[in-house]
Design brief:
Layout lengths: L11 H9 L3 H12 L2 E2 H8 L3 H13 L3 E9 L5 E7 L12 H16 L4 H9 L5
Antiparallel strand pairs: 1-3, 2-3
Helix pairs in contact: 2-4, 3-4, 5-6
Length: 133
Amino acid sequence: MRKTERLSTRQTTSDESFARTPTGVRAKILEEIKHYPRSVDELMRDLELSHSTCSSAVNHLMRHGFIANLGVTSITRAGRRCIVWEAVEDPPQPITAPTRRDLEQRISSAIAAINAQLPRETILAILTGASHV
């Protein structure tokens, strides 16, 4: 039994940066889907990729908001139903962490809002950075 805590080998900043900008196979797949919605089977055929490579890339693009289910199905070469994917016009932008100074300002504003007995929604907006007083 392990008595020490295992350190994470994942580098969050690298992962976030990598997710923001598809490269390699993911970029090729995204470009293909931007031109015309396609299924994994069609992408495999058109780009000459293995199923595992293609489906992994499509999964990644879907999880990070670059593509979405078109809402229709297609038939694979094996005769099975499959999802048709489309590119998302405005993929989500990465959220950057606020600086210490930003957090200090939000906390000070929130304390002032609490003292002024402002509504709870206003205080939450201040803390999340959606509003300032």
